[in-house]
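#onboarding

Welcome to the new folks! Below is a worked example of what a typical request in this channel looks like: someone posts a single protein sequence, and someone else replies with the predicted structure as tokens. Don't worry about understanding the tokens yet, we'll cover that in week two.

Example request:
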Amino acid sequence: SSVYCIEQDKNGFVWLGTASGLSRFDGHQFINYTTENGLAEGAVKAIFIDTLGTIWLGHANGGISRVYSNKIEKVLSISADITSFVMDDENALWISSYGEGVIKIKNPYTIIKDSIHFNQYKGQEGLSDIIFQITQTKDGNIYFVTDVGVKRYNYQKNRFDFYKVKGMPAYFQITYMFESANEDQWFGSYNGGLYHYQKEKGALKIYDAIDGLASNWVSTINEDFKGNIWVGTWGGGITKISDGKLITINNKNGLKDLHIRS
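Example response:
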């Protein structure tokens, strides 16, 4: 019953990463997958579905599995929890971890596991060992939310540069980054609230608990098809931002738990 992440594939199936492995929901029933079906060991903490429909799974304790053609197999393993995936414009798969930096698989579509070619980037390469999240923006840039700040990968120089938004406080740990449909950038923080960078205006707006945010510890951010921003927090429930108005959903109006992962 502990769910870490949720993704929906092009066929409508909902995939859930749980403390026990992987579950698939078809609208009527759940099918559960564990190590007995070929998964790596540990909870599934990250799910990514690429353009070919391959489902990549990141596990606690560093396992990486994939689901393709109805087959499940272990691909790689490192010694740190996997936190997120991104496929860049060159079809390289980036995998972040909490303690072992980032792995870049240059040929993720290869069928033969032993022929996978990858590089690892850690603190000595100018990144960090602890990566909370990778995200890609519409312009093709890849950003890394790390324990030392947000960094952007420089493809021309093969390096990681600090990314700083003017006016954004530097003393709160950034926990999550999200780009909305209008290319605005949203940043969640640990105890610092929510930051909204309005790209067209070049302005920064800050939301915190005083403004009605559910909690100043932001864990996840998403957007619905109407342009509403949904902010998950760790301990306060959910805040929906619609036309600048904040609506909080918590245990006072029906939410069963206040700790939101996805």
